[in-house]
C-alpha cells in the first residue's frame, strides 16, 4: 500500500467482489507473513470470512485471552464452580475444535458443536468412547454463560450457540435410601470400627464421625459442602434452626442463604457435639474424630465404601442423602414449596421431581376438594 504497510489479499471467483484485502498494519515483512499465515488458517478453518464487514472489526482478544478475562471476572464464585468453568472452556481450546490463536470474535457454531459432541479420548485419538448426555449438557451450560458474557462485552457479535439445542437428559428418578437401608449403612460403620479396633488399625472416632455427617445430611437436606462448612455460629439450639451461610471461603450453590429446622437425629448429633466441645471458638460443627475440618471429597469416598459394605444400590452416593431427605418429606405429605425452602432449590421444578412419591397425598387432596361431602 501507499503507506508502506502490508495487506493480505484473498481471492474467490464465486464471491462478489472476487477479491478483497485486509490491512495487516505492519511494515515489517516477517510480521506481515506471520499475520497472513494466521489469517489464512482461520479462513481455512471457517472461523473468519474476509468478505464479512463484521469479521473485519474483530475484538483484539483471542479466544484464550477472553476466557481468562471471563474467569478473572468470576473469581468470587465458589472454587468448585470456577473449576467447572475452566474445565469446560479449556476443552474448547483444543486444536480439534478451534484453530490456534482463534480470535474470540471468530468463534463459530461449528467450533462449539464440535466440542459439545466430542467423544472422550482414552489415551489416543482412535481410542474414544461416547460421552454421556450429562457431560454434553455440562459443556453446553458453561459455554452458554461464557458466550453471553462475551456478547455483553461486545467481544462477540453473533451467538455461536444459537441454533444448537441443549442436549436432552432423560428423566431419572433420584435415588434415595429407605430407613432400613440407612440403618444398614450406620451399622456397617459400627461393625467396621468393632472389627478394626482390637488390632490397633483404627483409632477411636476415626470413622464414627461419618455417622454424624450422615444423620445431619439426612435430617437437614444439606449438601455435603454445606455440612462441611457448618459452623457453631450457624446453629441455634434455642430456636431449633441451622443457617446455611455464605462465607469468604464458601458460597451456597444458589448464592442464597437459608434457615433449616433442626429436629430429631440431626438435633441430637449437633447437641452432643456441642456438649463435647473443648473450646468456645467458632469452628466447624462437624469434624474428624481429632477435631480437624472434614474434606468433602474424603467424606464422599468414605461414605461410598460403607454404602457398598451395606449392599445398598450402587447408584447411592453421599448426595443421595439430600434426595433421601426430600423423598421422606414428600412421602409424609410436606408441600413442594416447603421442601424447596428446606433444600434451597432455586426453581421449584427441581423439587417437583419427587412428586411421584406422594400419590396418596395427591389423591387425598383431590378427594377433599372434589369428593361429595357426607
Helix and strand topology:
Layout: E1 7-11, E2 19-23, H1 29-44, H2 63-73, H3 79-92, H4 109-116, E3 120-121, E4 128-129, H5 133-153, H6 179-196, H7 209-220, H8 224-229, E5 235-236, E6 241-244, E7 258-261, H9 264-275, H10 296-309, H11 320-331, H12 336-343, H13 348-351, H14 359-370
Antiparallel strand pairs: 1-2, 3-4, 5-6, 6-7
Helix pairs in contact: 3-5, 7-9, 7-11
Please, could you describe this protein's structure?
The strands form three sheets. The protein has a three-stranded antiparallel beta sheet with strand order 5-6-7. The protein is elongated, with a radius of gyration of 28 Å. About 45% of the residues lie in helices and about 5% in strands. It is mostly helical and about 375 residues long. A hairpin with a 6-residue loop joins strand 3 and strand 4. The model has no long low-confidence stretch (mean pLDDT about 85).
